[in-house]
Amino acid sequence: MSALNIKRGSTSHSAYDLRDPNAEIIESHTLAVVVDNESGVLARVIGLFSGRGYNIESLTVAETDHARHLSRITVVTTGTPAVIEQIKAQLGRMVPVHEVHDLTVEGPSVQRELALFKVAGKGEARIEALRLAEIFRAHVVDSTLESFVFEMTGTPEKIDSFAELMRPLGLKEIARTGVAALSRGV
Fold this sequence. Notes:
Dimer of large and small chains. This protein has 186 residues and is α+β, with helices and mostly antiparallel strands.
């Protein structure tokens, strides 16, 4: 073993790695929660997160079954594996909750988000904004002599990348829907 590597168990670590090897990793998980579509249910679900100090990175909710009065809440949250398991268990025990699915661990899923970007600019910045929008498949949904509003659907990472490229070109405002997700296959 070289002087630069320290062997712990079956994993090799650099002597310069200052991370705590016993610290748990924070993970991001996408949860799909099927609930009764009735007054106060969303507040109760969100109250579970806020009351215990869990963070919500993205939240979407809409009715998905009108006949059975069911809604689907899609929540992107972060935590250690133990915290994620605790969140799922606590959600599953709530009375208006019918199903809790962790799309992150249940297999491949499709995740999309809708975003609107207001970009103000003239001259070359305006031309560059239109060129980048075409590359990212963003659509112009409003245009004035001083600004554009672009609409884009994609992964949260794609939305973030487009926003970063638009900042120096005059990005003024962003509106995001939050993640909508479904598991792939049957």
